[in-house]
Amino acid sequence: MTSKAQYEQMNVPIAFACAQEDHSFSDTFRAEVEQILAGKPEVPNKFLLTEGTVHGFAARPNPDNPVVMKGYTQANDLIAEWAKTHL
Prior knowledge:
Blueprint: H1 4-8, E1 14-21, H2 27-38, E2 45-54, H3 66-86
Parallel strand pairs: 1-2
Pfam family, one: DLH
Protein name: Dienelactone hydrolase domain-containing protein
InterPro entries: Dienelactn_hydro
């Protein structure tokens, strides 16, 4: 999703595993989305910011980079926990 309006219409639980550097989901936009969802207490949401990562870190992690692998593991743990809780 790329527009604030899409998040304003959100009505299902949502989790974000965010890269530290992401041209598609900037710090500013992420903060705006967090603010939108904070105003919707009926919509469970969680944000994870993974330090030392870039866009795509969880889809194509570099197994030789321990910082990226830490973020990858955190993202996978978040999604597994989220699925158990909300699906």
